[in-house]
Amino acid sequence: MDEEHLHDDLRVFKDRNIFQQKLRSFSTVYLLLALSFFLIITLSAVSLSRVSALSSKLNAVRTEEKQNQNVSGRDFLLFPCGPDSREWEYFDGKCYYFSLTRMSWHKAKVQCEEMHSQLAVIDSYAKQNFVMFRTRNERFWIGLTDENSEGEWEWIDGTDYKTTFTFWKEGEPNNSGNNEDCAHLWVSGQWNDVYCTYECYYVCEKPLHH
Ligand SMILES: [Ca+2]
Ligand SMILES: [Ca+2]
Predict the structure, then answer these.
(1) Which residues cross the membrane (predicted)?
(2) Rounded to an integer, what distance in angstroms lies between the CA atom of residue 141 and that of residue 177?
(3) Most buried of the four, 7, 45, 119, 131, by CB within 10 Å?
């Protein structure tokens, strides 16, 4: 072997060595890349599962809050006819509306109907008691009339007048001037008949779950 050959061999060996070194460093880089990729995937998976666990916890809390509001929430307990409205008051399974404006009996009847309710039908002392404390001696229409046949009083929802509670003022109904066919609450919540075009306040009622 001459010197030149030896030199060549040495160069090939060197080149090989360099190639192997490069290969090794490449592998290291790839290995590192793969490792970081794996790490990123794992971390993302962990954080994703944490986020979803958190959000499901949050949902559970929210549902619980809603349930609390429905079951024992002060708003719904105090205002079953609607916590966002001061117009309707709750009593014994129904919601009542006490008008702030005056109008004839027929207009009042329509007003109640437009609010998916009817003029109040007072069929018990408990209900009378509830209504009279809120009408405060003012005149308020109720759903009672003898328009169809003089002296034959009828509740607008078909409740039998003859067998149910009444609370007429003494001497009423008197059909004064032969023209009094609509009933309203008055002083001490007692009832009076007056002409139907008279303008006074009115009480509407509707079931709690309409
Ligand atoms: Ca009458
Ligand atoms: Ca009268």
Answers:
(1) 29-48
(2) 19
(3) 119
